[in-house]
Amino acid sequence: MRARVGLAIALLFNLAGAAVAETPRETFQRLINAGLQAEKAGDFKGAEAEFAKADAITPNYPPLMMERARAAARGHDADAAIALLSRYADAGLKADAAYLGPDLQALADDPRFKPVRERLDRNAAPVGHPLPAASLGDGPFLAENVAWDQARNRFLVSSVWRHTIVAVDEAGAASPYLQPGAPDWSIFNLGVDARRGVLWASASASGPGGPEGDKTSVALLEIDLASGRVMERFSPPIGGARQRSFGDLVVTRDGTVYVSDSLAGEVWRLKPGAQGLDRLVAPGVMDSPQGLVPTPDGRRLIVSDYPGGLFSVEIATGRVERLPAPKEASLIWLDGMVGDGTGGIIAVQSTSRPERVLRLTLDRDWRRVTGWTVLAANLPELRGPTGGIVRGREFVFVARSQWDDFDDDGKPKTDKPEPALIERLPLG
Fold this sequence. Notes:
Layout: H1 2-13, H2 24-40, H3 44-57, H4 62-74, H5 78-90, H6 97-105, H7 113-122, E1 131-136, E2 143-149, E3 154-159, E4 164-168, E5 174-176, E6 186-193, E7 198-204, E8 218-224, E9 230-234, E10 246-251, E11 257-261, E12 266-270, E13 278-281, E14 289-294, E15 300-305, E16 309-314, E17 320-322, E18 334-339, E19 344-349, E20 356-362, E21 369-377, E22 388-391, E23 394-400, E24 420-426
Antiparallel strand pairs: 1-24, 2-3, 3-4, 4-5, 6-7, 7-8, 8-9, 10-11, 11-12, 12-13, 14-15, 15-16, 16-17, 18-19, 19-20, 20-21, 22-23, 23-24
Helix pairs in contact: 2-3, 3-4, 4-5, 4-6, 5-7
C-alpha cells in the first residue's frame, strides 16, 4: 500500500506532463495541473473549468473535490464553495478545520455553512463493531490479505515484510505455513481453490525488504493448500514494464486465476491447465488496478483502479469501461474487494478521510453501482486496512496492516510497531 498511497497523493500535486497520445489518466492529470496553474495566476473561474473537466473523467476524487471548494472560496464565490463542500460531505467524507484550511473556514459565519459542517462532523463518527480475530505482533509484519482454509479450520495471512504466509487458528494463534522454496519476495494477496486443494499467492520482488534494484520480478505462486509447499510459479514474459507489483487476485468458479499488477497497470490471467499467464488488460486504461470481483454470470470482472474508481472488464475481449455509480459516491482508493455472497461487493477504502469498509449494491446485471453503505469507519484500530474474505455472515479482514509504520522507501519506521490486526466484521 505504501507505493499506492504515494501515487494517490502524486496524482494531485506532482503531475507529469501530458503524453502525445493521452490515456484518460494522463488527461485527468493534465487538467488538474492546468487548474492548479490557473489558481496560482488568480484565475479561479479558469481553475474551476479545468477542475470540472477532470471531475468528469474521474468523478469524486476526494482531493480534487476539496481543492475545487477551496478555489471557489478563494475566488469569493461562497455559493459554489458551499455547494462543492456539501458534495464532499454527501460522499461520506470528513474534514477537520486543518484540512478545510483558512479559505473554507472563513465561510463559518455563512448560515449555509453550518449544516455542511454538521454533516462533516457526522461523517467523523465511529461506525461498526468489528471483533478481533488475531494480533500479529513481535515487530514489523505488514499484513496484506486473509484467506480461509475451511478443511483445516484456519486463516492464512500474507506478510509483505516477512515474505511469508502464516496460519492462524480460531483462537488467534499464529504458526508458520509457507514452506521453503518460495522466492524471497513480498507476499501480497491470497486466494483459495478448495476444490483443487490449492492456495494461490501473488509475490513481488519490488515489495519492502526485497532484492535491491529488482523492480520487475513478480510471480503467481501455486501452493499446496494442505502443506504450504510451493508447487509452481508463473511469471509474465520478461520486459514490457519498468516496474511491476502483483497485488490482488481472485479465483473464479472454473479455476481461472486473475491477478492485478498495481504498478504496471495490467491484469493477468492463468487458465486451468495453462503453462503460462496471458494478459487480459494492457496498461494505459487503469492506473493501478487492485481488487477484482467476478460478476455472477462469469462474463466480466469488476476491478478497482486505486486512483480512478471502479471499472468493468469484459473477460472475452478485455474491454474496459467505467462502472457507473451514484453521483454522491466517492469510490476512489478502493483496495481489497470481495463478493458478499448476496449480490453485492465488500470493499476496503484506504487512504481516504475516513478509511472505511463499504458494502456496494449493484443492479441485477452488475452494470451499475446503485448504492453504498458504510460498514466500518473512524475506528482506532482501522489503520491502513487492506483486504479480506467473506466467511459466512462476517467479513474477516486486515484492519491494521502496519503500512503506516513504513516509510516511502519501504523501510520500518520503528522496530516495535503496533501489531498487525485481523478483525471480524458482522455482515448481518
